[in-house]
Amino acid sequence: MTSRSIIAVLRGITPDEAVAVAEVLLEAGIDRIEVPLNSPRPLDSISAMAQAMGDHVLVGAGTVTATDEVREVADAGGRLVLSPHLDPAIVAETKRLGLQSWPGVFTPTEAFRALACGADGLKLFPADHLGPSALAALRVVLPKRTRIFAFGGAGASNFAAWLAAGADGFGVGGALFSPGLPAAEVAERARHVVAAYDAAMAEVARYQGP
């Protein structure tokens, strides 16, 4: 199955919903999942998905704001740590434990500092307050292999603009999931998001040429 560069942000998910939602996301082509730590019993949801999905899905936590939370995520089986901000101590602890580190950045200073700290990728947040043009400008000065995912305001309607500006992927939340949404509805939303992503990738490829 083709993997898309989309991280599903399941804010508010419960452990009882977790596995069913992870299964339909994977079936649709989304194999990266973030459970924000301000969700109900987030570590239980991470553990349930990690055990049920194994290596088929990269599961982790978002809204990570302290180093002890990084350790809790690792103990639950999570392999991905995302924060709304850059904290070098969180990045260091994440890498010490062998997990992927994606700190939130908003400025060039934060972006370069995150890379110097060892971040695996950058979470551009809140992306809608910057826009694709800001990302395009940032791309000019960042190392070429830097991975940047746009979070907040990036979605089916503007994937192409963000991709053309240099985004490597996206964090998608409310367009995929809201608390209490049946798995069947999540599946339908996921198929729509994936179709829009695939179309945007094809559009950008045509524009850029061989």
Automatic annotation (TrEMBL):
Gene3D superfamilies: Aldolase class I. The keyword Secreted does not apply. InterPro entries: Aldlse_KDPG_KHG (IPR000887), Aldolase_TIM (IPR013785), KDPG/KHG_AS_2 (IPR031338). GO terms for molecular function: 2-dehydro-3-deoxy-6-phosphogalactonate aldolase activity. Its EC number is 4.1.2.21. Pathway: Carbohydrate acid metabolism. Pfam families: Aldolase (PF01081). Keywords: Carbohydrate metabolism, Lyase. It is an enzyme of class 4 (lyase). Homotrimer. NCBIfam families: PRK09140.1. Belongs to the KHG/KDPG aldolase family. This is 2-dehydro-3-deoxyphosphogalactonate aldolase. It comes from Roseicyclus elongatus DSM 19469.
